[in-house]
């Protein structure tokens, strides 16, 4: 299963969310987006990552809402995770547990934001963003 490659158009999935049913491309419109994913149910690390993202979004927003400033997607049967190539179809009904030697992403929200800033800048201007660019 090859999954998504850099430069691919992200699938225009439909899903139920905390703000109702969305069609992903319609929801984003002309905005950039970040899709968080975590295959394991009810982990506290995801809570801290979502809170970090919410603080950043709310810091640049005029909203004074007390709820998350972005929707949470429901994927209770993991169909979307499989469609996006994030989960092996054979694992659909299983609780997820990573093998000890599995590849994992380090969580660093500041680095994620730096990468997004770089992507947005280089999409508009012909510049390079070298190591440790800010």
Count up the helices: 4
Order of helices and strands: EEHHHH
The largest pleated sheet is described as: 2 strands, antiparallel
The proportion of residues forming helix, as a percent range, comes to 25-40%
Mean pLDDT: 78
What is the rounded distance between the termini? 36 Å
- Beta-strand share of residues: 5-15%
Number of strands: 2
> What gross morphology would you assign?
globular
Secondary-structure-based class equals mainly alpha
Q: Biggest sheet, strands in spatial order?
A: 1-2
Radius of gyration from the alpha-carbon trace, in angstroms: 17 Å
Labels describing this entry:
134 residues, mainly alpha, two-stranded antiparallel ribbon, 4 helices
Question: What's the SSE blueprint?
Answer:
Layout (H helix, E strand, L loop, with lengths): L13 E4 L2 E4 H5 L15 H16 L19 H5 L25 H16 L10
Antiparallel strand pairs: 1-2
Structure description:
By secondary structure, the protein is mainly alpha-helical. The chain is built from four helices and two strands; from the N terminus they run ββαααα. Strands 1-2 form a two-stranded antiparallel sheet. A hairpin with a 2-residue loop joins strand 1 and strand 2. About 5% of the residues have low confidence.
């Amino acid at each position: 299963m090859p999954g998504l490659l850099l430069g691919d158009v992200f699938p225009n999935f439909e899903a139920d969310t905390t703000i109702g049913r969305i069609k992903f491309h319609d929801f984003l419109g002309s905005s950039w987006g970040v899709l968080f994913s975590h295959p394991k149910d009810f982990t506290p690390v995801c809570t801290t990552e979502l809170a970090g993202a919410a603080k950043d979004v709310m810091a640049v927003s005029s909203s004074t809402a007390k709820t998350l400033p972005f929707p949470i997607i429901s994927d209770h049967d993991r169909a979307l995770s499989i469609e996006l190539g994030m989960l092996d179809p054979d694992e659909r009904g299983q609780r997820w547990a990573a093998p000890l030697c599995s590849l994992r992403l380090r969580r660093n929200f500041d680095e994620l934001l730096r990468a997004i800033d770089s992507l947005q800048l280089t999409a508009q201007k012909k510049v390079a963003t070298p190591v440790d660019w800010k």
